[in-house]
Amino acid sequence: MTYTLPSEALPPTLLAPSEGSTPLLSSPSILIVAIGQTLSQAHLKDILEARGIGFSPSSSLHPYACFSQANVTVTSPIAQPNHLKNAKHTLQHELNTLPGLQLVIAIGLSTHITLMEACGVTLSRQIFYPNTITRLPDGLLVAHLPSPGTTMKSSSFTRMITALDELLPDIENALTPHA
Question: Which domain of life is it from (predicted)?
Fold first, then answer.
């Protein structure tokens, strides 16, 4: 199994702060988590930016997002247990240090399981429903997307993009302050 670490794929300014690092000056409202996926963060960033999700606080595109440091692109279809344990620890840190976080975009089932464990939510209480937004007990919103599959030409990739496009209005509505 080959791992591509996030820092190799994207500049560190697009990543959530790691343990011991300096906190971000402004906190993103969206955290993108894709554990055990074959889709690169750089490609996913392009897909999200094309749909209006920005990656810097000064961006005119809203809302502001960053990638989780728990993300690792793998060339094997199954994430390893030790990788999921490390990802859970990283996610717990990020969830506790991003005060403005309102929504997590969770891509794939491995991400859902790891996120629920990081949040202390039992899987029987929060089932994975792709193409939906759910609210966790602490109020954090989670937009669940199906796994993109192993190639960008696969029907799984098309399902992920279609699900993202269908969820974007709900994501924008959830992040828009209402009077």
Answer: Bacteria
